Description:
Blueprint: E1 2-10, H1 14-17, H2 21-36, E2 40-45, E3 51-56, E4 59-64, E5 72-81, H3 85-96, E6 106-111, H4 115-118
Antiparallel strand pairs: 1-5, 1-6, 2-5, 3-4
Amino acid sequence: MRFLLMHRVPEDDNASWDPVPELVERMNAFVEKLSAEGVMLGAEGVQKVGATVRRRGTAIRSTDGPFAEAKEVVGGFLLISAKDLAEATAVAEEYITCFAGVEEMSVEVRQVAEFEDLEPYLAK
């Protein structure tokens, strides 16, 4: 199974967006470890600036970031392979330790919907 681990940080915490060299080193070591174990499928950080596209009924509206409506925003993600949610959560618990020095953050763990999961919903 594939799982998406998204780390969320406060949008207004500059320390969360300007990683210190030690964080980069810890993250690189963690990614290398997961890659060697065959767990890592992908990993990326994201920039602070972005946009939000919302739809309400037929109206579509785009808003530039930073995201004033959110307290926490996605700062990056891992895409991993794990046998179940418990194993993915254990990886997330190790992942969050890479961010020593970041005062407040969370990691959301979500199973990726695979094509076969959608087959019952396809028109036949």
